[in-house]
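User: Predict the structure for this protein chain, please.
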Amino acid sequence: MKTKRVGVLMGGCGAEREVSLRTGEGVAAALESRGHEVARIVWADDGLGVDERVRRAEVDVVFLALHGRGGEDGCVQGLLELMGIPYTGSGVLSSALAMDKLKAKEMFRLHNVPTPPYYVARRGDLENLEELHGSFGFPAIVKPRREGSSVGLCKADDLAELAHGIEQALAFDEDALVERFVRSTEVHVGILDGRVLGAIEVRPKQGLYDYRAKYTAGMTEYVSPPRIAATRLRGVLNLAERAARALSCTGACRVDLLVTEGENEYVLEVNTLPGMTPTSLLPKIAEASGLDYPSLCEAILDGAQLHAGLNASGARGSRVPSHRAPRRSHVVCDVEDEGIPLAQRVAG
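Assistant: Here is the predicted structure, written as structure tokens:
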């Protein structure tokens, strides 16, 4: 990989932009310290497409430092597949499934991976919320169906708070996920290329482990390894591995779980592009396992690949041409005949 030019793609236009920028800068600096030629590719809402930004950077491989919508949900992954540029993390389908909390839960249930009970609420349900909620009980956790970093997350102790929480979640998504509150210890497990690195316990000092608790210094206590029995921990690590496998995740990912005093474990979600600032959870887990931050970044980079096999040239790491393809009046029959990626044809 050291002979290749690496593009670190960061930013985006979603709620997690600032976190992504911090992740991207940390990754870029770490890779440079290991001798890689790095191009920082910052996605911004200024009218210039991601494909053109990547093309202008003339990179051989992309390290995805994006979070949330557009970057973590399969969209950018699909674009890079069409451009024929290998990238880090999971493929299109796995990324989309993991980002969609409802679909992820359906996959967990299909694979017998325990997850807290839930239902979906939409704006039209607010008028009959008491009937919809029924005997589900309180407290309940409300979150947007497709957001990360606990954006829009809240805890509801009664019907009024539930309605407010759903309204808040619907500001980010057309669907809100209502989940049963489980009194438990929150444990996060790091996985790299199918191998479990370890786990860390998170204890917010106030309330939930929400966006504020995650990104405000001193708001959360981190304990590695988690303060649970060794035999119990082995079961948690195994469950995390099963959850990642249920979604066919590759590269680096982080699985968030709840561990109760009653010997039950539940999977909350799988993060296919976990935070990678030097103080994020995955780097903390990796460091406890003996893998320092620059080594972790390089190991993730080494796993970059194309998943869909759409690159007609077969040159999986080939550099994308920096010029724009000539305009054509008929492109349907020309998609495969010149080795020009479809994404470049659409843009050009």
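Confidence is low (pLDDT under 50) at residues 312-337.
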